[in-house]
Amino acid sequence: MAHKPGIDRDALYEEVWKAPMLKVGEKYSVSRPTIKWACIQMGIPLPPQSYWTHLAHGLKIVAQPPLPQRRQDQPQTISRAELVKQEPPSRRKGNPRQRARFIEELQRIREEDIKRADLMEEVDGWQRAESIRRYLSALDRRIAAGGIPTEGYAEWRAWAERCATDVDYSNSRVELDDGCFEV
Q1: Which of 5-9, 40-44, 87-91, 124-128 shows the lowest per-residue confidence on average (mean pLDDT)?
Q2: Are residues 73 and 134 in the same domain?
Q3: Of 88, 99, 170, 174, which has fewest CB within 10 angstroms of its CB?
Q4: pTM, 2 dp
Q5: Are 46 and 35 in contact (CB under 8 A)?
Q6: Around Cβ 112, how many Cβ atoms within 10 Å?
Q7: Residue 176 buriedness (CB in 10 A; 0-12 / 13-18 / 19+)
Q8: d(CA 156, CA 14)
Q9: Same domain membership, residue 127 and residue 65
Q10: pLDDT level of residue 169 (50, 70, 90 thresholds)
Q11: Separation between Cα atoms, residue 17 and residue 67, nearest integer Å
Q12: Which domain holds residue 88?
């Protein structure tokens, strides 16, 4: 089952009024107290304690209040990593199966964070390489328009091209055939 990177405020508001927080927590592989914590952080009104018991007996003790306007200090989303970190220590020490699931979830989140950080590093490198290439193109246009390169320019330019290639990880992701060209 693929998990979204985080829980959205509007979605969580709908979920906690459609099912008990215990069930909502199971969906995100966290406990009821962690879902309650997320609701408090995002300013989401919660059903009262006996809401689901009364509802099961055909009674409705309170109407679902509207979601209040989000304050500046309240997040719109909470990441899965933040949720897992909020798990109470008692849940972390739970029975061996619970503990194993918790450790697996933490490991999955860590692996996802590492992959995301690697991707961002690749993108940053590509952006730096593109900036270098644009700068070199601007210098080429100046020379084509009659500018005179300074002494050692050709060697410096070759070095700058190597620098752009060194920080551009896209070449390690997609190789170009000899007959292809970059856009």
Answers
A1: 87-91
A2: no
A3: 174
A4: 0.50
A5: no
A6: 14
A7: exposed
A8: 60
A9: no
A10: confident
A11: 11
A12: 6-93
- Are 82 and 135 contained in the same domain? no
Number of structural domains found in the chain: 2
Query: Which tokens belong to 170?
Result: 């896209």
Query: Distance (Å, rounded) from C-alpha 144 to C-alpha 4?
Result: 51
Secondary structure percentages of the chain, helix, strand, coil, to 5 = 60, 5, 35
Q: Is the dihedral of CA 142, 148, 154, 155 positive or negative?
A: negative
pLDDT classification of 112: cutoffs 50, 70, 90: confident
Q: Is residue 40 part of a domain?
A: yes
Nearest to 15 by CA among 79, 101, 26: 26
Burial tier of 7 (Cβ tally within 10 Å: 0-12, 13-18, 19+): buried
Amino acid identity, position 71 = R
Q: Among all chains, which residue has been given the structure tokens 């509802």?
A: 55
